[in-house]
Amino acid sequence: MGNPASYEELSANFDWSVAERELGYRQGGPINIGWMCSDRLCHLGLANKLALHWEDYQGNQKRFTFDDLRVLSNTIAHFLGELGIQPGERVCLFMDRVPELYIGFLGVLKTGAVAQPLFSAFGDESLFVRLQNANTSAIITQKKHLPKVRKIREQLPNLRHIIVVDVGESALQPREVSFHMDQAPRIEDFAVYPTTAESPSVLHYTSGTTGQPKGAQHVHYSIVAQYLTAKWVLDLRPDDIYWCNADPGWVTGTSYGIIGPWSNGITQVVFDSGFNAEHWYQFMEKHRVTVWYSAPTAIRLLMKEGTEIVQRHDLSSLRYLASVGEPLNAEAVLWSQKVFGKPFHDTFWQTETGCIVITNFPGMPVKPGSMGKAFPGITATALNPKTYEPVNQPGIAGLIALRPGWPSQIRGYWNNEAGYKAKFKNGWYLCGDRASIDADGYFWFMGRDDDVINTGGHLVGPFEIESALLGCPSVAESAAVAKPDPVNMEVVKAYVTLKKGFTPSDDLELEIMNRIRKRLSPLAMPQEIEFVDSLPKTRSGKIVRRILRCKEFHEPVGDLSTIMDD
Ligand code: PRX
Q: What is the pLDDT of residue 348?
């Protein structure tokens, strides 16, 4: 295992069928991610290999072998079947990073239902918008998140089952049911639903500039790309101890926190805990982590804590480091080279791509600050924003674009065909980002091409925030834009005009902030609210966020003639 060949060799002879063969997939035959990540490994002789070593912030630990993954995902799948969940129905996973989230994900997929993971820090409004859009049939959650579900369930008549993994029946209300993974009768044999390549698998919600978040619809065939990119880009080898610190509420936590490592039969460790440098270093030292997939904000937070704390820990087990989600600044790469003796390898991809598409491939010289080159089998370029033709000139900025057709490309946005169609121009899929490509073919990220705010690697849509702001009794109009931040790269700033009878004050600012934090999430909460008399608008009355964003970033606004006429 591992990746013995060079980037050039692999690119020259590349065919995705290499992954199909390794996964034992025959075209037209069944393919089920839940089965591939558990039963298949047991058939390959890894039944007793450790698959998951879980730990929480209190030091509680649980260990699961691949056979445990197999049996426990069967158990969950069986339970869902008994409740009447049908293939194709959406089952939401709304939990902290507890074992039930990881194993439940496999269980949902084994029934043929669609897994809809949602970040457990979401407030009731963020949760409602996504459950309503997906017409979700069941939600698996924890006691601590139950109040948020209870608050909205009357407005969700099709949400038939609320499954709670850590309470007894006596505490439950109608439509709620208790499921204890450790106590449920273990199901050794389960007839896994024979999903095929194009059967829907995972529905991840992601934010765009316009409208509420969109459900990115993945299919079971995505595993072909997730398996191979995990193996080659993250350089996974059989005796690795792998740590991906992303939450499965976001795509990194499923593609590379579940499917990628487990389809490769890799042992992974999970830390159900927030950021704390000392705890993170202790965790990696204790578990002898070899491969670590992280994010620039986390790295910048670690940089702030200095190097002395690193030296107090034995991190000699670390062999390979990679990062995703936001621009990985050159200083972070150089810092990691200095303190860990190896660089972070930047990887670029999206919810919609399902897998890493541009990357610093193992063995390829790292240019600090660059995202690297297209993964073998991926055709990536930078397009002229007017003609949608490749710019073909080193150093000139363009729109990052990919040739459609890689295995883990989403097959659509849930019930939003127009939104999906709009992502394609001139035979290219547009990522919504800008980059330049240098003479060696390395991509250099320049920024997003829309109004989406990337805070600490998490995308938040301005529309969702503005809708929530308009729900505040005092707010007449609003615009949510990014504001630069030294650690999170961007945070949310809201510009607000008030209704008659309200006057700006610190108390009002706090009240609005708190409301957004509770109803949406801490990520979406504006870190600053600026009360203004009016907002910049086009002649037809649309708010022009770009002017406000440029003000925050001290950038020139440029030519506004076309948008002002909108
Ligand atoms: O803007 C790019 C940024 O994150 C977006 C994708 O976000 P999401 O769909 O939530 O998926 C995040 C994890 C895969 C991209 O359109 N982004 C992602 N990776 C990078 C990045 N920006 C700069 N450098 C990266 N390596």
A: 98
CA gap 247, 256 in Å, rounded = 10
Among the listed residues 65, 23, 74, 24, the one whose alpha carbon sits nearest the alpha carbon of residue 47: 65
466 Cβ inside 6 Å of ligand 1? no
Domain containing 349: what range? 7-434
pTM metric for this prediction: 0.96
Report DSSP state, residue 343.
Answer: P
Report the candidate in 146, 71, 66 with the shortest Cα–Cα distance to residue 107: 71
**How big is the CA angle at 300 (ends 298 and 302), to the nearest 5 degrees?**
70
Residue 532, domain member (yes or no): yes
Q: Which residues contact 134 (CB under 8 A, 6 or more apart)?
A: 90, 92, 116, 203, 215, 414
Confidence category of residue 564, pLDDT binned at 50, 70, 90: low
Write out the two tokens for 276. 């704390």
User: 514-543: per-residue pLDDT in tens?
Assistant: 999 999 999 999 999 999 999 999 888 889
Closest ligand 1 atom to residue 400 Cα is 16
Shared domain for 317 and 247, answered yes or no, is: yes
Helix, coil or strand: residue 8: helix
Residue of 372, 374, 422, 427 lying closest to 404 (CA atoms): 427
pLDDT-above-70 percentage for the chain? 98
In this prediction, residue 209 carries a pLDDT of 78
Total domains, the chain: 2
CA separation for the pair 419, 211 (Å, rounded): 10
How long is the chain?
A: 566
Mean pLDDT of 277-299: 97
Q: Which of 381, 391, 387, 378 is nearest to 430 (CA)?
A: 381
Indicate if the pLDDT at residue 301 is higher than 60.
yes
How far from 329 is each of 82, 246, 436, 481, CA to CA, in Å? Answer: 50, 19, 15, 22
Ligand 1 center to 356 CA (angstroms): 10
Match 């072998």 to its residue by tokens: 65
Whether residue 158 sits in one domain with residue 290: yes
Please tell me the residue having the least CA distance from ligand 1 atom 5. Answer: 350
pLDDT at residue 565, rounded to an integer: 59
**Residue 2: pLDDT over 70:** no
CATH number reported for the structural domain that contains residue 267 in this entry: 3.40.50.12780
Same domain, residue pair 287 and 246: yes
Q: What is the pLDDT of residue 4?
A: 62
Please work out whether the CB of residue 324 comes within 6 Å of at least one atom of ligand 1.
Answer: yes
Task: Report the separation in Å between the CA atom of 431 and the middle of ligand 1, taken as the mean of its atom positions.
Answer: 9
Ligand 1 pocket residue status of 349, Cβ below 6 Å = yes
Q: What is the pLDDT of residues 168-223, one digit of tens each?
A: 888 899 999 999 999 999 999 999 999 999 999 999 999 987 888 999 999 999 99
